[in-house]
Amino acid sequence: MEYHLKCYDCGSVYGADAAFARCKRCGSILEVKYDYATLGLPKGFESQKPRHRKYLPFYPVKKLVSLGEGESGLVRAGYIGIPADEVNLFLKVETGNPTGSFKDRGSSVEIAKAKELGFGEVCCASTGNMGLSIATYADYAGMKCTVFISRNGNREKIHRIRKAGAKIVLVDGDFNKSIETAERFAARGGLFLCGDYHYRKEGQKSVGFEIIDQSKKTPDYVFVPVGNGTLLASVYKSFLEYRRMGILGKMPKLVAVQSMQCDPFVSAFKEGREIRHIKPRTKADAIAVGFPTFGFEALTAVRKTGGDATAVHDNAILWVSQKLKKHMGIGSELGGAAALAGFFEMRGDDMRRFDGKTVVAVITGDN
Ligand SMILES: [Zn+2]
Predict the structure, then answer these.
(1) Separation of CA 11 and ligand 1 centre (Å)
(2) Who has greater pLDDT, 351 or 248?
(3) From the CA of 6, how far away is ligand 1's center (Å)?
(4) pLDDT bucket at 83, cuts 50 / 70 / 90
């Protein structure tokens, strides 16, 4: 589909061949703006099997770099130690992706774009899962990769990123400091910058497309964990696009979940103000982001869908993650189980709120 890039803040417009991750004029994030009149869906699109590559017409690339990402299960939650019989609760389980998290969906588009634009080297900032995914996809595509990660990051994840063939640069400071460093490194060396930017957001839309295609009844609520806010913004965009194509009728309400030990998004939503940078103290490293890059877009998504946001204590997320493993055999890291923990938190506050409703919680990763 034909597209151009538009700055989310100042509205500057750039061509599809622009290889930078932020607006040249104001430094804000960019948005892929499609000319939907050029969107050609193949005959029988709606009856095709829900999987990442089915949605190629909705991505800004001609071909994916694919390792078999996506096509994850939408499973009915059984007993998870907490009775939820009155709720039609489903889990979108992303842990079976090639590198164990939903990030692979974004990497398949982002690395494909880097290749299309002629780059041989990429870099990114990461809290762990992103770096592992990008390193793996870059290696598969024959590209060099450098990952910037906080010195206090998860040791096991750092080890796995190195094993995937990437060069690691340890950064003194949190994730946002890693982002700054990676962005400078990319600009200086003329590398393609991967991470939570517009192309990744496009690839991650397939989480939302699959949820709609796999659901017999459109979900009333979709719970999504928020680190950088990209996944929530992606799911929202997929819903908007399906609505535009007449595939989706009613819009599900989006619910953002964070750890109480790192809740810049949730506190901004609750207090009706802008997001402020905070120091992450959560053990859920996948969502330990003090200032979400896509925070504003994610706020818009939650507000426009009439959704909600909640923060859950790390200990409660751990408890839910253990229950999920014990009762359903689904492994998940803390950030991966946060959305489900958020659902139980909200239901605990108001036992009747979700009765008779169809709820989906995204289990994002298990590293
Ligand atoms: Zn701008």
Answers:
(1) 6
(2) 248
(3) 8
(4) low
In the structure, what pLDDT confidence band is assigned to residue 84 with cuts at 50, 70 and 90? low
* Residue 352 CA, ligand 1 centroid: distance in Å: 44
Quote the DSSP letter at residue 203. Answer: H
Ligand 1: centre distance to CA 25 (Å): 5
The CATH number that domain 103-196 falls under is: 3.40.50.1100
> From CA 300, how far away is CA 302, in angstroms rounded?
6
Place 79 in a pLDDT band, splitting at 50, 70 and 90.
confident
Distance 30 CA to ligand 1 centre (A): 8
pTM metric for this prediction: 0.96
Nearest residue to 350 (alpha-carbon basis) of 221, 260, 233, 219: 221
Residue positions counted in the chain = 367
- Ligand 1 centroid from CA 21, angstroms: 11
Query: Where along the chain do the CATH 3.40.50.1100 domains lie?
Result: 73-101+200-363, 103-196
Alpha helices in the chain (DSSP H): 103-116, 129-140, 155-163, 175-189, 198-203, 205-214, 230-244, 264-271, 295-304, 314-328, 334-349
Contact of 281 with 297, CB cutoff 8 Å: no
**CA–CA separation, 143 and 65 (whole Å):** 12
CATH no. for 73-101+200-363 = 3.40.50.1100
CA–centroid distance, residue 305 to ligand 1 (Å):
26
Cα-to-centroid distance, 290 and ligand 1 (Å): 22
- Ligand 1: centre distance to CA 24 (Å): 7
User: pLDDT tens, 144-171?
Assistant: 999 999 998 899 999 999 999 999 999 9
The residues pairing with 358 across neighbouring beta strands, listed in sequence order, are 88
Q: Tell me how far the alpha carbon of residue 105 lies from the centroid of ligand 1, in angstroms.
A: 27
Q: What does the alpha-carbon distance between residue 142 and residue 281 come to, in Å, rounded to a whole number?
A: 37
